[in-house]
Amino acid sequence: MITQKHPSLKPYNTFHIDCRCKKLLIVEDESDFEELFSKRVFCQPFLIIGEGSNMLFTKDFEGTVIKLATKGMEIINEDDDCVYIRVAGGENWSDFVRFTIENKFYGAENLIGIPGLVGSCPVQNIGAYGSEVKDIIYQVEGFYLPDGEPFVFYNEECEFAYRDSIFKKELKDRCLITEVVFKLSKEEHYNLIYKQLKETIEQTGNTVTLELVAKTVQKIRNSKLPDITKVGCAGSFFKNPVVSEAKFAELSAKFDNLVHYPAPGGVKLAAGQLIENCGWKEIRKGDVSVYPTQALVIVNWGNAKGKEVVDYYQQIIKSIQEKYGITIEPEVRIVS
Ligand SMILES: Cc1cc2nc3c(=O)[nH]c(=O)nc-3n(C[C@H](O)[C@H](O)[C@H](O)COP(=O)(O)OP(=O)(O)OC[C@H]3O[C@@H](n4cnc5c(N)ncnc54)[C@H](O)[C@@H]3O)c2cc1C
Q1: Thinking of the domain 73-185, which architecture would CATH place it in?
Q2: Which atom of ligand 1 lies closest to the CA of 175?
Q3: Which CATH number fits domain 2-68: 3.40.50.880, 3.30.43.10, 3.30.499.10, 3.90.1200.10?
Q4: Across 196-313, where does the E strand assignment appear?
Q5: What is the distance in A from the centroid of ligand 1 to the CA of 159?
Q6: Does ligand 1 lie within 6 Å of residue 49's CB atom?
Q7: CA of 71 to the centre of ligand 1 (A)
Q8: What is the pLDDT of residues 23-61, one digit of tens each?
Q9: What is the pTM of this model?
């Protein structure tokens, strides 16, 4: 296990916020887990991170940050139709997706390019281009905190929902996910429900393959999202709000062309469109603004402080409340 005292967390969060923690522990080997429990690391203030791509540090973290760096992907079972792969929590998510593509296993390809580690993917049930990771997770393994009792959660026990799971609710900061077992199909099939993905693939005139889907997803992502090696951000900053049918009827009588989709519990609106309609594409405060091609993404162009991003996002929430009477919520974890 690598230990750093009082390090800057700037390289460990994609928002590039320059703050510090008391101690950083990088867990490289499974045997390190035992040490974490014997040293009672989880009995003091702690924060588990992956690649820090879904969090915003608002100030220094007065505790220990634990980062997984464990590696390993193993096929543990297979039959004619599907394959079960156990993947260490410290593996990079897109490396795993590439592994599935190279081996012709179907189901993960639409999710290529999402930053982060495998151990974090169940936390907010990552999703993109019509797919969600819940569709390929078989089970999630780890330890309850702080005592270190092992757990296994089967898919249906994870309470997966839109950008949500049990790991973000009851088990937030009460479990360490160490491995995820995925169930992927060996049978050729593609999810082209997302219109832009389908149309872009059709425009190529080529036969659909896993490689083509992944390449197209990556191309669309690159056209909309910032390069996090250059610009700080945490992807979509807000969740898309779901409103009742009655509220939607009221809004559409007042506002034209509201992007909307059917959703459990009502109608889902596009938070990015609401933000854009409130004029935020024109508003930069210091090094903070929304990203020009995607208003749902808040960016740090250089040296923004966490507090400045907080002020900015809270003003966005307020303006949407005033114009539409809807409260949008951050998708990103705000670490205070
Ligand atoms: C440019 C960009 C694009 C993005 N696009 C998408 C997208 O298309 N779809 C999408 O869903 N998300 C997207 N995201 C958000 C982000 O990539 C995902 O939420 C990702 O799963 C976060 O992984 P991470 O390893 O960085 O987790 P972190 O941000 O480090 O942690 C996220 C949360 O999980 C907890 N956690 C992390 N690891 C563990 C563990 N091993 N055990 C228990 N808890 C843990 C943390 O405490 C924290 O609460 C994007 C982010 C960026 C920067």
Answers
A1: 2-Layer Sandwich (3.30)
A2: 43
A3: 3.30.43.10
A4: 232-236, 242-243, 260-263, 266-269, 288-291, 294-300
A5: 17
A6: yes
A7: 18
A8: 999 999 999 999 999 999 999 999 999 999 999 999 999
A9: 0.95
